[in-house]
Structures are given as structure tokens and as C-alpha cells.
Amino acid sequence: MKSERKLVAAIDLGSTSIKAFLYTPDGRCAASAARPTERYNPCEAEHPEWVFWDPDAIWKGVGEACRDVLTGLDDPARVVGVAVTGMGMDGVPVAEDGRVLYPFISWHCARTAPQAAWWDQTIGAEKTFGIAGFPPWAMTGVMRVRWMMEHEPAVIQQAESWLLIEDFVNFKLCGVRATDPSMASCMLLFDQKQRAWSDELIECSGIPRRLLPVVKPSGTVLGTVTDEAARLTGLPQGTPVVLAGQDHLCGTLPVGGHRPGVVSNVMGSWESLIATVTQADCSWTLGRAGVCMQAHVARGQYAAWGGSPSASALSWFREVTGDAERPWEELVAEGDRESKPGAGGLIFLPYLSSAACPVNDGQAAGAFVGLLNTTRRTDLFRAVIEGLNYQFLHILKTMEGCMDTRFERIVASGGATRNSFWLQNKADVSGMAVEVSETQDTSPLGAAMLAGVALGIWRDLDEAAERVKGSTRIYHPNPTLTARYEPLFEIYRSLAPALRPANHALAAWRLPAP
What we know:
It is built from 18 helices and 24 strands. A 7-stranded mixed sheet has the order 18-19-17-16-22-23-24. It has a 6-stranded mixed sheet with strand order 3-2-1-6-15-14, with helices on both faces. Strands 4-5-8 form a 3-stranded antiparallel sheet. Helix 2 (113-122) packs across helix 4 (141-151) and helix 12 packs antiparallel against helix 14. The longest helix is centred in the C-terminal third of the chain and has 32 residues, at 479-510.
């Protein structure tokens, strides 16, 4: 088959939607389709605060999105490979016969806070970070397994493996249980310097080693699409399935962020700032600030990154205000017209699903501070956008301090870069020019690049990045607005420590009675 006829499929498992894409060798998206990622709670009567993803619904959504994206394709055999990327922490126990024994505990679910507290007190955050490059967040995979051991021990006894969500979909596609270093990092049991499971942390955790799948490099051909998966997805049986990795790291590839010196700002459900480095620095200076050191999907590289939940705050705001169906452009125009920069002195803390970097507090919570009887809904809307950008600047300054560097070039990518209001405000709040890739959905394109390199479409990631590179636009800061935001940012930085005692007390109150 001529190379220009070849297509690479990519599947992106996001917190709001499951997407499928077809890419040409020059990085053009030939087709895309999506299905919603819906939370559910079968235990709502007893535990209304719990949040799950339904594994059957995830797999069904993958199948429907894939079938849609293949509709109208003249010859499905043009698809020469498929790769999966997406969110990182959520996993399921899988029996030897392939049955899923318990649904995904969503990263939105706070039930594993006691396990994180146990880990912190028993093993210690500093020791953990020195090996794994991650703090002991409640959302990390090992905390879910420990919760399961304490509350559903029969499930763990039956389980042969614990598969993170991308690894689960790969397993459904080709029948192979494996993970890559970027996803393995999300378990909190991965030795970054050795790029292998940590015997010490596994022993400390007490979890059965059999649950941890084999770790293979990103870009490895795992297997081929099975007959059963072909019937569900429409992908041709025998199509190679290539191991990709976590979405925020795949998202750096199309903008050249796998090369040291470029700082990638991946904007999605989470906002991440990622600096590629060649050595794993697991010093506690980084760990204390919530800056993670994670094995990159680019072989032999590491990612120093700071991130926290982000765009999900906008989805929450639109739902609770009844604006979910209103066009985004209408909300922006109204907010820009009726609320001035600074939102009337209203500040939003975006910690609706805890906090990672740099607050690094699993029991942090969101807040509007500065509410008055003159505050309008449009002020609330602007405050949410500004709060997300204060968070961005906080992460940026923290990483610069920890790494003793100064970032000069920020390249933003991800689904949220469609939001020009957010981006211009980001430039104004930070005082930095923000370069934005016109390529939407860079994470699945990055996964497709890994597959394309593995299948010989491109020689390596550098060649792939040059081939798929799209145009960019730049948002320049307004110095007058930057000066206006400076004192508000300092107030923002003071709020999380001030609210910490109240938030921790409320978190304890929410726990079910013993």
C-alpha cells in the first residue's frame, strides 16, 4: 500500500469523552468521532459520594466511536495500526479469564484518602518520591488496590492483574496485559531510575505482585486486534495494537515537547506543565511542591511536570448554573461584557477534585472567596477562568523555583486550546506569551506518532514531529492587565494555606461513620 494511503487510528480515553481518530502520515485528521464518558454510581444509596466509570460502558464507547470513525472509509485495511492514550490513574481488577471484577474507581472519587494517609504515615512521602517520582496522592493506583484489599478482599483474591484504563482497552483490543513506563508511574510502585517495578515499594505496599502487568516501552507492538474486538470496533482483525502512554505526555509529541528546552502546557481535564529532561531527578525539593518526575513516552526521556484538575471545573460550573447547553461563545461574550478583569475582587480556587501541584493536598477543596451581594453570575464565570490561570502561574513559578530555571517558551496544546478567552487571559495573568498549536487533540496525535514510528511510517519521533507540525498562533499579554492581576495572584496564593484547616475538618466530616 502506498504510504500516503495509510492511516493510523488513535483512541483517547478522556474524563468527558471517548474519542477515536484516523490520521494520515502528514498528521492530518482524516476522521474523528466521540462518545461521552459518563460517571455512574451503583452504590448511590449507601455511598452517594462515590464515583465510578463502568468498564462495559467504556469499552462500548470505544467500539461505537471506532465504528463511527471508520464509516465512509473506502477500505478499512488502510488502517495499519491503532494506539490508545488517555487519563492515567484509574484501573480495574481483571480475573484470569478476562472478567472485570469491580468497576473503575474514578479519579474524582475521594474514598481512598484514608489509604493515602496510611501510606504517608507508614512509608512516607519523601521515601516514596525518591523512588517513584510521585507523592502519595489518594488517586494513585496503589491506593485503589489497598482500598480494595481492605473493603473487597475477595475481589483481589480472584484478580490476576490490575489494568489501568488504557491498558484495559489494549487488553480488550488484543488480549495482552501490559503497560508502559508512563502509565506504570501512575501506580506509585514504579522505580523511575531503574524503569521497572520497585521491589521495595511493592513490599511496603503489601499488594500482590502478580497484579502488576509487564512493563514494555512506549511504541511497542503489543499484538493484533482480535476477531471479537474487530466485530465491536470495526477495526480489521489483525491490525497491530501499539502501546502508547498517558495522554499529557503523548500530547507533547506533536509540538516537539519531547525535546529538552520546550515547556509543554497540556490543557484538558487536567492542566499540566511538562519539561522534558534526560535524567530522573527524584529529589524531595520537587516532591514537596507536587512536581512529579515521570518516565516519558519518548524512550529514555523523563518528564518533570506539575499539574492539577482544570477544565473539569468549567464543566462543573456550567452544570450547576444551568448553562451546560448554552453555546460557549455566548457565555464568553456575556462574561467579558458584564464582568471586568479581576471579577470584582472575586477569586476562585479550582480544587474541586483535590489539588496536586503546587498545593499538593488531597483534602483541598474549591472555593469562591470575595463573594458580595453585588456579585453576579458573570463574575463567577470570569473568576473560574482567572482562577484556572492563577493555578497555571502558580505551577509555572513553582517548577521554575524547584528546577532553578526560567521558562521562556510555553507551547500550549490539548482540547481546551479551542478556548481563546481562556488563553488570552492566561497570557494576561502570567505576563508571558502563550504559543498555541493549531493542532487540536494533540494527545491522540501523539499516540498515533508512537504507532507510526513502530510501524515504519516515520523513522523516529523527531521526523514524525516535523511531518505533523501544524501552524501556531501566539497570545501576547496586555501589560496593563498583567499589573492588575499581580496583587490578585498573591492573594490567590495565600488562600489554600488559609483554608487548609477548614477543608481538612470538612473532609473528615464527610467520611462515613465507623
